[in-house]
Design brief:
With 463 residues, this protein is of the alpha/beta class. It has two domains: 218 residues, D-Maltodextrin-Binding Protein, domain 2; 186 residues, D-Maltodextrin-Binding Protein, domain 2 (3-Layer(aba) Sandwich). The protein has 18 helices and 14 strands. The strands form two sheets. Strands 1, 2, 3, 4, 7, 8, 9, 10, 11, 12, 13 and 14 form a twelve-stranded mixed beta sheet that branches. Helix 3 links the parallel strand 1 and strand 2. The termini are close together. Its main location: periplasm.
């Protein structure tokens, strides 16, 4: 979560792009000579003006006649963006042939892309033949190296790119090896992000007179032994160990960067094995929901919706910082295939991809995230606080106890959070050393984690 030549646009790209540019107007600031209205009024006014602009643009577009119908096929992770986006785009007219499709998981989508490359062939309905697909940011480096995706042509010239903060740009610019490189190409466009969080049952903690969870070190408390479930992502498991020791998820050299060196990491990891009853990314929340465990660790996109369906649950981003995850739009590398089965897609993606990226990064698109209709946050608010949302007084939603504010961690915690970088060769060596000294159980839940770590090492820093 691999590099190929830059794509070419479809025939007559200027005609196609101009004819449908109106569908995805780029975000822009509005000057105002008078003092700004209160936040709620400003938001309502902005929404009203935005609706008027959309209507005017739509009527102008409908008044013109074009023989061209331009396709835009998007294959996304199910539930990762608001359904309202589809309705807005589809309402723009018949000139745009918008085809959204969904896959159940990032893993499934990534596997689908990989099979096309492994078999050397692509089918018309495969994700590889789409114009744009979802990909997790931690998979991006491996996807680049394997040639599953291609660079986004002319990204630096686009409004959507200019709207991103420097932190995003550093994360998305990669070389052909998938490594962060300021001189590299842009390989992905973020459309939502979040963190790994810890949830715990307040009722159980109160019943047993336990202190609330605040940071990673709390997972090692003796009274919580056997009462924790956790995702089985190797980077997250070892990352929690590194954070508990006061180090970074992206530690390059455990011996020199961790207090106590590799032996300290091994000792802490061994202790965590005794604390966690279940390492399982598929069932960790189920175990938490039925009460088998009192604490769970997972991605905010999973945990927040589940916690809202429960009672007496608190969710926290650890105060020393956590890992950041992001869902990105990427362009499948269909140009590598010599075939007539996918039409003009072999010459490049739809000329509307940049308009789609612009659309997803408009400030108005952030509202469903801020309203917590969709878990996560808009990329616009990675380094800027998300605006408040005018609440409907008639809607009395149960309030979830959390330190997240409109899907975003507090600034003092967020600045300590990290995107996962590809493992360096030295880090891979440390992981291998760690695995060689961990006592492996015969199968079982911990065995699954160790097997996944071994798989990661075999893929040479896939994550």
């Amino acid at each position: 979560m691999e590099g190929k030549p830059l794509h070419l646009l479809l025939p007559h790209p200027h005609l196609a792009a101009c004819s449908l540019l109106i569908l995805f107007p780029a975000p822009g600031a509005r000057a105002c000579a008078q003092p700004p209205p209160p936040p709620a009024a400003a938001e309502a006014k902005e929404q009203e003006e935005g609706d008027e602009e959309w209507e005017a643009a739509l009527q102008q577009w409908k008044s013109k006649t074009y023989a061209l119908s331009v396709p835009l096929r998007v294959v996304a992770l199910r539930g990762s963006f608001p359904p309202a986006w589809i309705k807005v785009v589809e309402a723009q007219g018949k000139r745009l042939k918008f085809s959204p499709e969904f896959r159940p998981s990032i893993d499934a989508l990534f596997s689908e892309l990989s099979k096309c490359v492994d078999k050397g062939q692509v089918q018309p309905k495969s994700a590889m033949a789409a114009d744009v697909v979802s990909i997790g940011d931690s998979w991006l480096g491996y996807a680049i190296r394997k040639g599953l995706v291609e660079p986004i042509n002319n990204a630096e010239e686009q409004d959507w790119y200019r709207s991103l903060s420097d932190r995003w740009k550093v994360h998305l610019c990669r070389n052909q090896k998938g490594e962060a490189d300021s001189n590299g190409s842009v390989w992905g466009v973020p459309y939502r992000w979040g963190t790994v969080v810890i949830a715990y049952k307040k009722s159980k903690f109160k019943q047993h007179n336990l202190k609330p969870i605040q940071d990673w070190e709390d997972l090692w408390r003796p009274e919580l032994a056997g009462k924790i479930s956790m995702i089985d992502s190797p980077r997250e498991v070892i990352g929690a160990v590194l954070k508990q020791l006061g180090s970074s998820y992206n530690t390059i050299d455990m011996e020199t960067e961790v207090n106590g060196g590799r032996e300290a990491v091994l000792n802490s990891f061994t202790q965590l094995q005794k604390q966690v009853q279940l390492f399982d990314s598929m069932n960790y929340l189920k175990s938490f929901g039925v009460g088998d465990v009192w604490v769970t660790v997972g991605w905010s996109s999973d945990v927040i919706p589940a916690a809202k369906r429960m009672s007496n649950v608190a969710v926290v981003v650890p105060k020393s910082g956590s890992s950041l995850w992001a869902d990105l739009w990427a362009i499948p590398c269909a140009t590598r295939f010599q075939t007539d089965r996918i039409g003009g897609r072999t010459r490049g993606p739809s000329p509307l991809i940049h308009q789609w990226f612009d659309f997803c990064l408009q400030s108005a698109r952030s509202l469903p995230f801020r309203q917590e209709i969709i878990p996560g946050a808009s990329p616009l608010f990675l380094e800027n606080p998300a605006p408040e949302v005018l609440q409907d007084r008639n809607k009395k939603k149960p309030k979830l106890e959390t330190n997240l504010v409109r899907g975003v961690a507090p600034p003092e915690i967020l600045e300590k959070c990290e995107f996962l970088k590809p493992l360096s060769d030295k880090a891979v060596g440390d992981y291998q050393w760690l695995m060689s000294r961990v006592q492996r159980p015969r199968g079982g839940l911990l065995g699954n984690v160790l097997q996944r770590i071994s798989t990661v090492l075999g893929l040479k820093s896939r994550f």
